[in-house]
Amino acid sequence: MLQLSNILIDGVVYGMVLFVISVGLSVTMGLMRFINLAHGAFAMAGGYVAAWLIRVEALPFFAGVVLAIVATMALAAVLETFVFRFLYAKSELQQVLFTIGFTFAAIAVASFFAGAYIQQIPLPGWLHGSVTLGERTLPAQRVMVVVLGLAVVLLLWLIIARTRFGIWLRASVDNAPMSSSLGINIRLVQCATFAFGAGLAALGGVLGAELMPLEPYYPLKYLVLMLVVVSVGGMGSVSGTLCAALLLGIVDTASKYLASGFGDFFFYAAMIILLAVRPNGILRRR
Amino acid sequence: MSILRVEHLSKAYGGLKVTDDVSFTLKPGERLAIIGPNGAGKTTLVSQIAGALQSDGGRIFMADDNVTSWPGYRRVGHGLVRTFQISKLAPDIPVLDQLALAIHQRDGSIGNMWRHKNSYGAVLDEALAILRDLGLSRAAQRTPSEMAYGDQRLVEVALALALKPRVLLLDEPMAGVPKSEAQLILDALERLPADLAVVIIEHDMELVFRFAHRILVLANGAVLADGAPAEIRGNEVVRAVYLGKGGQA
Amino acid sequence: MQLSQASSPIGRGSYFPWQWHLAGLVLIVALYWLFPGNLLMLTRIATLAILVMSLDLVTGYAGLPTLGHAAMYGVGAYGAALCAKFLTGDPLAGLLVAAAAGGLLALVAGAFLVRYQGLAFLMLTIAVVQIMQNLASKLSFITGGDDGLSGFTVSPIFGRFEFDMFGVTGYWYSMILLLLSFIVLQRIMSSPFGLCCMGIRENRDRMSANGTRIYPQLLKLYVLAGVFAGLAGGITAQVNQIVGLDSLGFELSAEALVMLVLGGSGNLVGGIVGTALFSGIHHFAATANPFHWLFVIGVLLMVVVFLPKGVIQLVARRLGNNVLAVFGRRA
User: Which of residues 195-224 of A touch C (CB under 8 A)?
Assistant: First the structure.
């Protein structure tokens, strides 16, 4: 029983990290139909910058993380405007190739500037302890991940369902040319969404630094994970991504606890089954 | 003896009846035009006959075979071919090769892996002949992406003919074709094989009254009228619903 | 993607462009003579070229980008190795086993995969290759796990040509097989079946409207590709006499895709050109620091995407025309 709740908690934590990292990719793919295999590079960038700011520049934890996210968003906005937007019209294969190339280059750059070691993000004192919820005692860091993950979900829901930008976003995902002729500034929506998604990835990179160590090969190593979450959840669907991330996070954690000899087998088997049954996303009809 | 018989075909999406008890027969060589206001269910009807959509009720017979439960590709093999409102052509494959593909499919040689595709003299000759009949000889080595839209619509007809249909379903062959190229299509339609039964959906009334032996008027999924062009022209109900009071006819 | 055969006047008769095959043979001999010290690298290029050509069938001809092609290569490699270890050291028998293994995996996986397209298909191919790698790692008592499968010897070809450590036999072995594979694959893809696959790539709805059933044709193609991928794996296993887990991996699949795109997809030759180009660049750019290589190939990829399609072949063709013009002939 204890193990079951351990699995659930760790699974949810892992799932939350996957969600925060992948949701930006999902919306980007749904909005611009842009298969961005370089998305992991933004998660890595966020983690690296945060690590540098906190460890080397001795900024307080909170400030460091926020600054890292902002910096990543700025970088993403610039890249989107001057590079990535020219790929939206290209074929799937070309997008895959370009973004893989970008990922390779990003990996090389990361190692050039920071070496090949794992980047540690030192946690502040108040996150070192444990939190008691009912009868369970959980590491504070884990609780923070879940709390922040839920905060992200809430924030996204607010933006998408309650703001004008959200309406623009939904309209553009549905039908870009039509939205454009209705006066919605598509370029702004695309750039802002891309940057925001990258910012979320950066946050995810920081939050998940314990589960997914930050090192130069990070974008490639966890690429498959992100793609799995997005394709199972359905491109462009925030709720689908959440569902998929939690589901896959729990499945993976469960298999690590209960059947560690099988490695990733159950994860991929689950993915195959989910994709076979719902090729357009877990919450979408065929 | 009818080549196509549709009996009490019906289909509904929820409460909306898109096809409401439609029946008609077609004899070999007969030209039937289906007309009706937008949303009357013309394309839906044709899709069901072609097997692309599943009907809720009714039966479809080709010659004497009950094809109601047959999947689309099987109906094609049996001689029931349709064209599309928006051309479905491979953009970058030369027209001649696309015709060859249709002919290979028809005569069963499409799975052949060993002979070079250009060594099938009979296939290529037939393809060239079809193109010649439609006035498209010069387009043989061109790709659809290099052709005018009117020519592309013609290629679509050519592909249908390459499948040696017994019943041809033409879904708005003139759709999207500029006036300057319309004559090509009209000529092609005039020259269709005489024993070929044709169902044509069209909005161009000049074409309809010139080409059709019979006209079926559809509104809200149901048959409003079915008869010779002269009858339809004089039919008050049809006038009101479709042609408009004092409109062209 | 223009079909060059269709652009030429329609002739009848035999379609065996033996002049090109002969030129290929001459090239093989020339390379042997020119680069006697690089035989191992050339052998690797030859075997990878077969893999990339088989990938071209699925991705270039049928339009299904896949990141899991190495799975068939890997089972072919392990198949050949196990054959040599437990059945017979005869290399040709090993090749048969390798090809059969690749084809079998393609049949089993393809029966499921080929129902999908686009991103779903891509993801599923990744899943398959990851699962295969997992399996190989777990079944280490058969595959040797992380240490790889070794300790098997391959008998001399036809009883005469021994696999020496200088790679001479390996060179001829792989190059001749590359030439033969090319001849066979080119023949098959110039047939109505090949045209059918291209039609599926260009417009599935059109093919369905003709009455063509897409699934069986794609499955046939996938199995064909699997056979040749397995063959390539088998050659590698026999020449190197060791098989590692990386022959089954996502990384190799991605590399193969890169090689294909570099050289131009959809006409087989591009696969060979791309493999040679990629390997050549790797040879020069890979220094002690593997990250330099990563940067170079990354930039290369980004550049390739923005170059016009098949630019490498366009340039090659122009150069070729210039050369032929010197001899008074137009290509």
Answer: 216, 224
Give contacts of C288 with chain A, Cβ < 8 Å. none
Give the chains touching A; criterion: ≥3 Cβ pairs < 8 Å: C
- What was the pLDDT predicted at A80? 93
Judge whether A241 and A23 are in contact, CB under 8 Å: yes
Q: Is A91 helix (H, G, I), strand (E, B) or coil?
A: coil
Interior/surface letters A24-38, b for 16+ CB within 10 angstroms, e for the rest: bbbbbbbbbbbbbbb
**B-contacting residues in C 13-52 (Cβ below 8 Å):** 13-15
What is the distance between the alpha carbons of residues A39 and A195, in angstroms, rounded to a whole number?
11
| Torsion sign over Cα B202, B208, B211, B217 | positive
In this prediction, residue C16 carries a pLDDT of 74
Q: Give φ, ψ of C10 to 5 degrees.
A: -75, 105
B137 CB near a chain C CB, below 8 Å?
no
Question: Which residues touch C16 (CB under 8 Å, ≥6 apart)?
Answer: none
Complex confidence, ipTM = 0.86
The average pLDDT across C52-61 equals 96
Q: Which residues pair with B5 in a beta bridge?
A: B25, B61
pTM of the model: 0.85
**Quick check: helix, strand or coil at residue B238?**
helix
Cβ–Cβ below 8 Å for C305 and A101: yes
As a 3-state breakdown, chain A gives helix, strand, coil percent values, each rounded to 5, of 75, 5, 20
Task: Tell me the domains of chain A and their CATH numbers.
Answer: 2-121+138-277 (1.10.3470)
pLDDT digits (tens, 9 = 90+) for A14-38: 999 999 999 988 888 887 788 888 9
Q: Does residue C164 sit at the B interface (CB-CB below 8 Å)?
A: no
Contacts of B17 (CB under 8 A, 6+ apart): B10, B11, B220, B221, B222
Three-class DSSP labels, chain C = CCCHHHHCCCCCCCCCCHHHHHHHHHHHHHHHHHCHHHHHHHHHHHHHHHHHHHHHHHHHHCCCCCCCCHHHHHHHHHHHHHHHHHHCCCHHHHHHHHHHHHHHHHHHHHHHHCCCCHHHHHHHHHHHHHHHHHHHHHCHHHHCHHHCECCCCCCCECCCECCCCCCHHHHHHHHHHHHHHHHHHHHHHCCHHHHHHHHHHHCHHHHHHCCCCHHHHHHHHHHHHHHHHHHHHHHHHHHHCCECHHHHCHHHHHHHHHHHHHHCCCCCHHHHHHHHHHHHHHHHHCCCCHHHHHHHHHHHHHHHHHCCCCHHHHHHHHHHHHHHHHCCCCC
What is the arithmetic mean of pLDDT over A141-162? 86
Bridge-based pairing of strands B167-171 and B197-201 is parallel
Query: Measured in whole angstroms, how far is the alpha carbon of residue C50 from the centre of its chain?
Result: 3
- Of C164, C168, C162, nearest to C28 by C-alpha is C168
- Please check whether residue C79 is in contact with residue C106, taking contact to mean a CB–CB distance below 8 angstroms: no
CB B70, CB B139: distance < 8 Å: no
- At residue C111's C-alpha, the angle toward residues C106 and C116, to 5°, is 105
Amino acid at the residue A104: F
Q: Is A276 on the interface with C (CB under 8 A)?
A: yes
Closest CB to C134 among A35, A102, A265: A265
Does A58 reach chain C within 8 Å, measured CB to CB?
no
How many CB atoms neighbour CB C116 within 10 A? 17
Give the pLDDT mean for A176-193.
Answer: 84
First and final C-alpha spacing in chain C: 19
Is C299 within 8 Å of chain A by CB?
yes
Tens digits of residue pLDDT in C165-182: 778 888 999 999 999 999
Cβ–Cβ < 8 Å for A267, A252: yes
User: Could you give the CA distance from residue B16 to residue A215 in angstroms, rounded to a whole number?
Assistant: 58
pLDDT digits (tens, 9 = 90+) for C264-291: 888 899 999 999 999 988 887 766 677 7
